[in-house]
Write a structure and sequence with these properties.
Layout lengths: L12 E9 L1 H8 L2 H5 L1 E8 L5 E5 L10 E3 L6 H13 L2 E17 L5 E15 L15 E5 L9 H13 L2
Parallel strand pairs: 1-5, 2-6
Antiparallel strand pairs: 2-3, 2-4, 3-7, 5-6
């Protein structure tokens, strides 16, 4: 799936997010792995009982789907599989992309923009065992849990709730 834009599929939810930031935040964004990559992948991973796997990080104002930046030459499918495993220890297989968000930072002073394309996948856990201590490695994950459904507080609820419904109810 390298180089293949999931927005070419008719059943993918497509959104745009734009955030105005100050000069320092814009400089940080320019130096970030997601901007350098151009692609970020996350996944709602489900187990056989229909539970969804989510993580908690200190910067987020709610639970979020595990994920991260695609590495050079890596397919989007391979990136999401790797990110789920790295962040949770759960081995999973991507089913399909369910949502794409074009995320843009805008420098509030100059109007300059940068960002990435976020692809949210549906995935199925090959083994639902959470095999990772959230306090180790370079990740800032504070908790990893299986939920019966989306909790009340999720990061970026406008996108996450709609994408979750795409996964659960079908496109």
């Amino acid at each position: 799936m390298t180089g293949v834009d999931p927005r070419d599929r008719v059943d993918v939810l497509t959104t745009e997010t734009r955030e105005q930031v100050d000069a320092d935040s814009f400089a940080d964004a320019l130096d970030s792995e997601p901007v350098r990559s151009g692609w970020v992948v996350v996944a709602f991973t489900f187990d056989a009982a229909g539970r969804v796997l989510l993580i908690e990080e200190p910067w987020a104002d709610g639970w979020l789907a595990p994920g991260g930046a695609r590495k050079p030459g890596e397919s989007l499918d391979a990136a999401v599989k790797r990110e789920i495993d790295e962040e949770t220890g759960v081995e999973a297989s991507p089913v399909a992309p369910r949502a794409v968000d074009e995320f843009t930072f805008e420098h509030e002073g100059t109007g300059e923009t940068t960002g990435w394309t976020l692809v949210l996948f549906e995935a199925i856990a090959d083994d639902p065992t959470i095999d990772r201590d959230p306090s180790v490695d370079d990740e800032e994950i504070t908790d990893i849990r299986w939920f019966e459904g989306l909790p009340e507080t999720v990061f970026n609820p406008e996108l996450m709730v709609s994408a979750y419904e795409q996964c659960v109810n079908g496109p």
